[in-house]
Amino acid sequence: MALVATVAALLAALGGALWLAARRFVGPSVQHGGGDSGLMHGKTVLITGANSGLGRATAAELLRLGARVIMGCRDRARAEEAAGQLRRELRQAGGPGPGSDAGEAGELVVRELDLASLRSEEPRLDVLINNAGIFQCPYMKTEDGFEMQFGVNHLGHFLLTNLLLGLLKSSAPSRIVVVSSKLYKYGDINFEDLNSEQSYNKSFCYSRSKLANILFTRELARRLEGTNVTVNVLHPGIVRTNLGRHIHIPLLVKPLFNLVSWAFFKTPVEGAQTSVYLASSPEVEGVSGKYFGDCKEEALLPKAMDESVARKLWDISEVMVGILK
Ligand SMILES: NC(=O)c1ccc[n+]([C@@H]2O[C@H](COP(=O)([O-])OP(=O)(O)OC[C@H]3O[C@@H](n4cnc5c(N)ncnc54)[C@H](OP(=O)(O)O)[C@@H]3O)[C@@H](O)[C@H]2O)c1
Q1: How many CB atoms lie within 10 A of CB 54?
Q2: What is the Cα–Cα distance from 153 to 140, expressed in whole angstroms?
Q3: Which residues line ligand 1 (CB under 6 A)?
Q4: Rounded to 5 degrees, what angle do the CA atoms 209, 261, 17 make?
Q5: For ligand 1, what atom is nearest to the CA of residue 148?
Q6: CA 17 to ligand 1 center in whole angstroms
């Protein structure tokens, strides 16, 4: 009896492993959100957090489409390493390598996120992708004294976008793409404690920052009407990246977690498809203020469409980052 049970368990495990492997190697297929190589020739794209995960995969895809990609990163060494890998991968895939004059692939440029110099050094900007993010970190403050997740995910991009608006307008038609998350559903904009000094819940604060990404997008779309600069927001799905670096997974559970993530999470290339689509596809020319997943428009909860909250958040953010004193 015990032997039968052991054999059955082994067969079940083997069947499960084969099923997982089949899912990885046979499907799901990567649907390229952008399109033909060459689609982004002559376009300059700035991606924040481009040295890792989704940002890195988005950079690779847009390079393949011929864009001049600026990797906006906080750590030059990490960014140069990622850029070197991307160049090698592209050459191995048969392309001439970004930066070469030999053919289709675009150009790759590494920049530290020095906002002032970025503004003065770049003659044009066709696409800004607000991608960088931090997830469920312990309570920390940014140099300017903001709660870390709200500061990085919302306020940092709020300031960057505002500083680059003039350049985006003079380069129009141009696009802004904001990477949010479905977890916005569990957040609220608690104006009375935006720095979480009264209480801190790391999950709530991540969700709040991602809700802020959506409210920011919708308010910005309203302000940009008639300028030929569009802004849209997306959720990428659950993607295997370095985002969980602050999450502690017990050693014994790690192999199981790795197996589940390998089987069920999207790869970075799969997760990047909606960012690439919104950055490059002619299908979304002129579309603004919308929320996307898997390259399709999706409905939002009412709290993410509340115009008065969006306006109030904009006004307070302006004061917080020092655009308005
Ligand atoms: N992965 C998912 O399942 C998932 C799901 C929904 C939404 N998202 C969103 O997708 C975006 C990309 O995340 P990812 O999954 O690709 O994670 P990731 O691999 O951890 O990449 C995050 C990027 O953001 C950068 N970053 C973090 N803090 C920063 C700061 N203070 N200043 C400048 N850059 C900073 C990181 O730079 P360093 O390498 O220097 O730290 C890194 O390049 C995030 O906005 C995230 O919220 C991801």
Answers
A1: 29
A2: 13
A3: 49, 51-55, 74-75, 78, 113, 131-135, 152, 179, 181, 235-236, 238-239, 241-243
A4: 165
A5: 31
A6: 30
41 vs 93: CA distance, rounded Å: 19
Question: Taking a C-beta distance cutoff of 8 angstroms, is the pair 164, 130 a contact?
Answer: no
| Interval 190-228: pLDDT, tens | 999 999 999 999 999 999 999 999 999 999 999 999 999
Instruction: Residue 59: name the closest of 272, 261, 225 by CA.
Output: 272
Cα gap 158→320, rounded to integer Å: 10
How does DSSP assign 285-317, residue by residue? TT--S-EEETTEE----GGGS-HHHHHHHHHHH
Cis peptide before 123 (omega within 30 of 0): no
Q: What are the beta bridge partners of residue 69? A: 45, 108
Which residues does residue 229 pair with via DSSP β-bridges, in sequence order? 174
The answer to whether 206 is a known catalytic residue is yes
User: Residue 162: which H helix or E strand, with range?
Assistant: helix 157-170
Rg for the chain, CA atoms, rounded? 21
Backbone φ, ψ for residue 193 (5° rounding): -150, 55
Q: Tell if the pTM clears 0.85, that is, is over it.
A: yes
Beta bridge partners of 292: 234, 297
Q: How many CB atoms lie within 10 A of CB 77?
A: 9
For residue 245, give the DSSP letter: G
Judged by average pLDDT, the poorest of 47-61, 96-110, 170-184, 205-219 is 96-110
Omega cis (within 30) before 28: yes
Q: Are 211 and 182 in contact (CB under 8 A)?
A: no
Element (H, E) at 17: helix 2-26
Q: What is the DSSP letter of 99?
A: T
Amino acid at 295: C
Q: How far is 319 from 290, CA to CA, in rounded Å?
A: 26
